Amino acid sequence: MSKKLNILAFAAHPDDAEISAAGTLLKAVAQGHKVGIIDLTQGELGSRGSRELRKKEAENASHVLGLSIRENLKLADGFFEHNEASLRAAIEMIRKYQPDIVLCNSPTDRHPDHGRASKLVSDACFYSGLVKIETTVDGVMQEKWRPRAVYQYIQDYYLKPDFVVDVTPFWNKKVEALKCFSSQFYDPQSAEPLTPISGEEFFDFLKGRALQMGRPAGFLLAEGFIADRIIGVDDLTLLL
Length: 240
Known about the structure:
Number of helices: 6
Order of helices and strands: EHEHEHEHEEEEHHE
Shape: globular
Radius of gyration: 17 Å
Mean pLDDT: 96
Structural class: alpha/beta
Largest sheet: 7 strands, mixed
Number of strands: 9
Helix content: 25-40%
Low-confidence stretches: none
Strand order of the largest sheet: 3-2-1-4-7-9-8
């Protein structure tokens, strides 16, 4: 059975992809595409929750999103490096699932891991297409594979998007997926430290950001992305 995916999202931490791109992933699944997430770390340095709890939360969110696969590379949260070992780990996933489109973290953001993860994954997508870089999984030599496009989802800091995706019909389902990460978000009964995403207002911020992204395109709610290269089209009428 083929493991090929249409879209593979990479995330520095469990919940990164859900916060910034869950609506887009839900929409892709509804359109019949095969979608997966690769988390680079287990989020073990997070002020709230634990790696065991976040693993369970990610599993629950994956079910809500309808993902075909989800894996965790178990790189060191906060300390993973842009080096050969990390690049090879990402390349193995790209070659394993042969995605047409890769989504990854914002190129610059409040959390240093996000920009570093973005660079790591973007570079891995390029190197994955080089035949002289050999990778083997379970004793089988992998074939080279380069995704057709890499798009970076916009996170905490506002960055002007190159394009936005209308996620209006999927907003409530996105919130359902986010609430699977209950350790990370607002809980008046929690005694854990407050974080920038655990305040009661955070979901209002997310919706406000989606309204901001959607308005210039004529959508109610949208998620924004940055392209690492110029996007070309061969049918002008497909651009609205």
